[in-house]
Write a structure and sequence with these properties.
This protein has 139 residues and is mainly alpha-helical. Helix content is 78%, strand content 3%. Helix 4 packs antiparallel against helix 5 (102-138).
Length: 139
Amino acid sequence: MIPLPQWMRRALYITAVMNILASAAFIPGATALRAVVGFPQASHPLYLSTAGIFVLLFGLGYLWTAMMGRADRMFITLAAVGKLSFFALLVRLWASDALPLRAPLLGSADLIFSMLFFAWLFGSRADTGAASDAFRRAS
């Protein structure tokens, strides 16, 4: 587990709230909310509920990680790739006229968080490498 800088903790808190609130859009009866964000209206409750559970669980994971002030690189890697993948999916579906433009515009927050997460990953790798080198030299 790697200690988190304050900016990363803030990013995790914000995306935690975003994910927890966004999970409401996947409640099967939330058709009006899905219309506001530009998501398709008709879908089987199993698929909506499954997607909602994953969005909620990641939101809770972001919250827990921010509260603890330490992160596992694998979790942040999954978060970064997941957020980037979701944004890319929204753009692809918008480009094929399957979603309105507001869907990728609203989803651009995921792109921003993905970039922040990748920045932390690359920065923490350098920090971890420098610490490992210092430890090896001291031994």
